[in-house]
Design a protein that fits this description.
It is built from four helices and two strands. With 107 residues, it is mainly alpha-helical. Among the domains are: 38 residues; 32 residues, no CATH class.
């Protein structure tokens, strides 16, 4: 059975072998990529063109919901979430949500 020192020695030797293989393969991969780039006339700037910068998340642009309700002062609410104070006040004064609905124009 191996003792701790022997296991650590084998681990170090294995790490060295991995590093050696990786660096050897890296050189051949870089050479292969360079040959492909030359064959297809691709430049380094072609590789990064149109790409977002590192770390920049790709998000859909935020669209605000279309307002559904409006009061006489032009304040609007889409009908999502808690109603704003002006809606609560209008309802308390006897109006209904139907009274506040934005009328669709026949344009």
């Amino acid at each position: 059975m191996l003792n701790f020192a022997e296991v650590m020695q084998r681990a170090a030797e294995t790490d060295q072998q991995i590093a050696s293989l990786k660096s050897g393969q890296k050189a051949s991969i870089v050479d292969f990529i360079n040959r492909l780039m030359a064959a297809y006339e691709v430049t380094i700037s072609d590789l990064s063109a149109g790409q977002p910068s590192e770390g920049a998340p790709r998000r859909k642009p935020h669209r605000s919901p279309t307002p559904k309700y409006q009061d006489d002062k032009g304040r609007q609410w889409a009908g999502r979430g808690l109603p704003p104070l002006w809606v609560k006040e209008a309802l308390a004064s006897g109006k209904t949500l139907e009274d506040l609905l934005i009328k669709k124009s026949d344009a």
